[in-house]
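REQUEST FORM: STRUCTURE PREDICTION
Request ID: SP-0412
Submitted by: Lab K.M.
Chain count: 1
Length (residues): 147
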Amino acid sequence: AAMVQAKHHHVGWAAVAFSAVLNVVQVSVGLTMFGPFREAASQNESLGVLAGAVVALSFMIYFAAKLLLGLAALIFGLASMNAGDKKLGGVTALVGVIAMLANGILVMFGRDGFLPSPVAGGSGVLATLLLAVCLISLARKDSVSLK
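STATUS: Completed
RESULT:
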């Protein structure tokens, strides 16, 4: 409800929304394509490359979604800092930037790039957690200021 009623931070809310769409696509690719491609590759070894490409696509979508959540964490972290919560906002913004960089690198170079993929995934998960805490904190401050 907060997203559609928002008067500010439209880019942050758009990043959250598009990340959700990408996550649905990523899970859908995994659920619908991993099994059939794995089975086909077990019957015909030359199809193993295609199965690997499907897995790579799924991970690329996953990393793109985490990049967007990092962007949202940056935006709402800065908003939280402006609202007076310097510690939470600063940590959220910093982790958001790290998630953007780490996941951006893996989107560009693949999951076997020069950065271990758990760093990107982990920073994206931490950015998401801090984003949620930030949004709850900002919502509480908004409800107090409306009274």
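NOTES: Residues 48-82 form the longest helix (35 residues).
Reviewed by: T.R.
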